[in-house]
C-alpha cells in the first residue's frame, strides 16, 4: 500500500491492524453507525453497525489460534472535503499460531467514507468476486 496517508489509506491500515489483532471494537470503530455492507460471505448485506459488529465477533472467534493478515494492493482513492472513495484488491491470509501461511484468498474491495465531527468513518463497503460463468463459482484471485 502507498505511504500516502489519505483517509482511505488510513482506514485500510486500521482495518488490517484490527483484523490481525481480532479486535472487534477497533474494527467496529472504523464504521459509521448507519453503515451499509455488501459482503462476499454468508448473507447479501449488513445494515447498521450492530449487525456488522456481530459479524466481526463471529468471524474473529471462529479463527481460534489463527490470525488473518490483510494486504491491500493496487489501492486507488479520491477524497473531497467530507467524502472519500477507494478501491483495492485485498488478500486475506490465514496465519497459524506458528506464523505459517495456511491459505489465502484475494477479492475486490470498495469503501466509501464520510467525514462527520472531524472523523472519517466507513459508510459503505462492498467486497466482491467475479463469477466463472461455466462453474458458477467465485474467482478468488486476479
UniProtKB/TrEMBL annotation:
Residues 8-131 form the SnoaL-like domain. Coiled coil: none annotated. It comes from the Bacteria. InterPro entries: NTF2-like_dom_sf, SnoaL-like, Steroid_delta5-4_isomerase. Transmembrane segments: none annotated. Pfam families: SnoaL_3. This is Nuclear transport factor 2 family protein.
Amino acid at each position: 500500500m502507498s505511504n500516502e496517508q489519505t483517509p482511505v489509506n488510513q482506514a485500510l491500515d486500521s482495518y488490517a491492524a484490527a483484523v490481525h489483532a481480532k479486535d472487534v471494537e477497533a474494527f467496529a470503530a472504523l464504521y459509521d453507525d448507519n453503515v451499509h455492507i455488501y459482503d462476499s460471505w454468508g448473507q447479501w448485506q449488513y445494515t447498521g453497525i450492530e449487525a456488522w459488529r456481530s459479524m466481526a465477533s463471529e468471524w474473529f472467534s471462529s479463527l481460534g489460534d489463527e490470525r488473518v493478515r490483510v494486504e491491500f494492493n493496487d489501492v486507488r482513492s479520491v477524497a473531497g472535503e467530507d467524502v472519500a472513495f477507494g478501491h483495492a484488491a485485498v488478500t486475506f491470509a490465514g496465519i497459524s499460531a506458528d506464523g505459517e501461511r495456511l491459505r489465502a484468498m484475494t477479492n475486490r474491495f470498495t469503501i466509501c467514507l464520510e467525514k462527520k465531527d472531524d472523523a472519517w468513518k466507513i459508510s459503505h463497503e462492498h467486497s466482491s468476486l467475479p463469477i466463472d460463468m461455466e462453474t458458477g463459482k467465485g474467482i478468488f484471485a486476479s
